[in-house]
Input
Amino acid sequence: MNSKRISLKRSAYGFAMKALMTGAAVITVGLLLLIVAYVLYRGLPGITWELLSTSPSYLTDRIGILPDILNTLYVIIAAVVIVLPLGVGAAIYLNEYARNRRIVAMIEFATETLAGIPSIIYGLVGMLLFCQFMGLGTSLLAGALTLSVMNLPTIIRTTQESLKTVPQSYREGAFGLGAGKWRVIRTVVLPGARDGIVAGCILSIGRIMGESAALLFTAGFAHTLNGFFSGLSSSGATLTVALYVYAKEHGEFEVAFAIAAILMIMTLAINLLASHASKRLGRREL
Output
């Protein structure tokens, strides 16, 4: 009798936990879909060719976000080019070369702590270090460097965890065949950790695209159309900064929702491209 009662209690407890987890998942997905649907509903009607292909003109009250789109792409390219080699290289050293585990543990603790620092603090430090001390001024390059420092902990930790998932037997088999350390890392370890590295890169790109607080201090508000190299040395507003300016300063909420919809579409497109590139690399290796 007691065993039957205990079995019923366990079944009821398992059912209740399953129901709670299912409810939490449904609420989370529902909220996400609600936000996405509302932003697209408000933003898609405001996306026009004139908005996407022109620069703003205060003389004719024309609103255009082409400079902001290009500035966003410039910042993404510059930040990824800086942070990806540094983050992946640091993770490879910590996981494959470093021998003092106490120092590795301290560095891992430091990176986890840095990942939790508010972005506005990074913006303040970036303004003092890159804009003033290094003499870069308010520019997209200073913003990209600040975002690189912000995203470095994310790249390091995700790459480290991916490298740890590669079985040690793969390394030992490659060493047994006479391969050197770097060759083993390049041909065995990195391909096995490719998915995690791509995921970390996508997370970083998403954070770069969605960042505004740090860029307010370092990149500025200019809506000027520039080329890549001239743009990096000039002040410029990214899409998130432009969204803030149009919504908070000008009260143009329809334009702000249109920019939010464009950011969602760009994020989805980057995720799909990264996933496609990862699959193609996997097919080549096979």
